Known about the structure:
By secondary structure, the protein is of the alpha/beta class.
Amino acid sequence: MNRIAIIGRPGSGKSTFAxxxxxxxxxxxxxxxxxxxxxxxxxRNREEFLKLQQQWIALPQWIIDGNSLKSLEMRYQxxxxxxxxxxxxxxxxxxxxQRRFQDKNPVIDxxxxxxxxxxxLKLLYYTWSFERRLFPILSELQKKYPDTPLTFITSDxxxxxxxxx
Length: 165
């Protein structure tokens, strides 16, 4: 597995897992939030975002962490494995709140410059309704690319087997 797409609810541990998997498998890790936003959470121009994402996908090896459901197909069709993090909503909410008040782990460099952690109703709603938006897209992608392996992570313990097979 040289190309791994990781998606899931905010606060589910995607970025932490991506960095750990990158270290274990010696694959480069890329975080979509670094290119989706510029500074101070300003969204990048869509065409530029897609072009930057396509440059990553064109590489022979990668782990790409992040949602961007509108461009998920780009990653899905090129991935050797797609991992979907669907930890309990309460746990994700707790982590989102917790990380707002804690210092960020410097090893996890998953944000554009000057994009500090923030807590907003928009983020909480996005987290709450994530599955409702994700599942129709995933269903279509599974039909279109049936040979792409898809794994769901519903607990922190399930990540261990993927990092330490």
